[in-house]
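Weekend entry, working from home. Most of the wet-lab plans are on hold until the incubator is repaired, so I used the time to fold the two sequences that have been sitting in the queue since the last round of cloning. Logging both here for the record. First:
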Amino acid sequence: MLTVQETTRYTTSSAQSQMSALGKDDFLKMLLAQLKNQNPLDPMDGTEFAVQLAQFSSLEQLTNLNTQIDYVRSDLISLMNQEVINAVGMEATVQTNRLEVEGDSTDVSFSLNGPIQTGTVRIYDENGALVDTMDLGCYDEGIQTVSWESSGIPPGTYEFEVSGLDEEGNPVSAQSVLQGTVTAVTWKSGIPHYTVAGLDVRYDAVLAVGRPQEDGDG
């Protein structure tokens, strides 16, 4: 059978090993229990008691810090959600190689890392089969948009890729993008998604958002 002093030491060791799993109230109760049950003729070592008090102080500070972090995280999530919602009705540029085809003409947008002398746009169906090819002329660096003659093409979602060469015949990096109005926002597994030009795109694929350009704007 354990003596009171042995029980006290065992409880102290147990408290240290389980402190991460206990709340500060539980830890304080254990500390008080040790004081009540200690042997008056052989009291707890002062240094050991001071260490436990320091542990309790650290636990309390960590608990308070975690509470503050939860508040900050909640505020950040609210701000982000508000920002996402405010994007509805705005014009967005998103990184994607998909485009929605419906009608005789479809806009195809891309971003060039430098000017090109010639280039090619290749469009594929959902099975990866080449549907059409467009030749490009001279285009400057930045985001460009060309009109694809899509009459006779079944409506649906297609993919495209862009390649270009500068005046010396060197390849120029080109990124497929999509430009259009944000018409809706949804959350999937906690991640916001925009609906842009009929396509569903993740929030982190958005490159830029701005107000629609009105007639007369320069």
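Second, folded right after the first finished:
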Amino acid sequence: MSEVFPKAPIIEALIDIRTQLPENVSLTDLEKLHDRIKKEYPDKRSLGLWGGLLELKGEAPPRAETHFQKRGYSFFGADGTQVVQFRLDGFTFSRLRPYTRWEAIVPEVRKLWEVYKTGVRPGKVSTVAVRYINAIEIPSKDFNIDDYFTSTPKVPEGLPPILENFFMRIEIPFPEEEAKAVVIQTPANKQDPLKTAILLDISVFRQLTLAPDDERMWEILEKFRDIKNKLFLHSLTAKTLELFR
């Protein structure tokens, strides 16, 4: 059993299931599913991507167009700590602060997945993933990053030893689970005047082909949670882990 940290730095935990839906499933079908969860998830918002076009033609003034390509809907829990996405390409559940426990989240995910699965009847599951975004708050503005992280970016020797910003991304295969993990470290956008927040973003995913009701999907996600825990513990020093106890 992994250690439970009373002051866990998790700001968002996600379970993502990518699917292949029948061609006749529409955005309207996804929107109708809200009726089945509206009591617990009353707030509905459109979900999609913005795109743009800039046209230059002769001496004419440039013409710009923007458009929003809707992909589905986000439904927000009444207290703002849980969000579920029903999309044309899949399903995502997010738990925001305060994080509870994996064992408390999975039953809710399974319940919502059942609503999505029975409502739009995906033909198959193509990818499953877990993602945990942590904000590691170092109680100082002047510190040695090696004291807090086991793997860190370095300024080349001979240059000023000042690191104002960084983005470090590593990919790690886990052949036994046929999975891949991505670990990202980068400073958070919002900073406290007395602290330094560094994001530790851990994703574990696998591309596969499963039937939507195959119980093995949940077994795989459970293994991914164990991998995520291992990556978290091995990314941080003992000094950092003490901050969460």
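Plan for Monday: verify the second prediction. The first strand starts at residue 10 and ends at 20.
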